[in-house]
Specification:
This protein has helices at about 5-15, 15-30, 35, 45-55, 75-115; strands at about 60-65, 70-75. The chain has about 120 residues and is mostly helical. It has one domain: Arc Repressor Mutant, subunit A. The protein has a two-stranded antiparallel ribbon. Strand 1 (about 60-65) and strand 2 (about 70-75) form a beta hairpin. Helix 1 packs antiparallel against helix 4. The longest helix is centred in the C-terminal third of the chain and has 40 residues, at about 75-115.
Length: about 120
């Protein structure tokens, strides 16, 4: 899988509010589809599908215990997501500073032309 595909899967997984809430719950303690559905406004089947998306993105890991699968957050992958988010935020901050500089230069130029 290419780096772009991994990133797309990661951001697609994190982009859903239900999955973000599930990650919050799993950060506090591991859980099952059943235990998570009791804390969310979705069915157990929907939770299982969301867990599949999170698993494919590498954000959660599961272990079989009896008839259930217990899920926990993959700290390393979540850490990579946080680092990417910080990097994207920094890049946008730099872009916005540059836009502000350009706008200020245009404004000064217009003021000089008007005098």
């Amino acid at each position: 899988m290419s780096a772009t595909a991994v990133d797309d899967a990661l951001w697609s997984a994190i982009g859903d509010p239900t999955r973000r809430r599930m990650l919050d719950l799993l950060l506090a303690d591991e859980g099952t589809a059943t235990s998570l559905s009791a804390q969310l406004p979705v069915t157990r089947q929907a939770v299982a599908k969301h867990l599949g998306v999170l698993d494919r993105a590498g954000l959660v890991r599961s272990t079989a215990r009896g008839r259930e699968r217990r899920y926990r957050v993959d700290d390393e992958r979540l850490g990579a997501a946080v680092a990417q988010l910080q990097s994207v935020g920094s890049a946008w901050d730099a872009r916005l500073r540059r836009i502000k500089q350009i706008a200020e230069a245009i404004e000064k130029s217009a003021d000089r032309a008007g005098n």
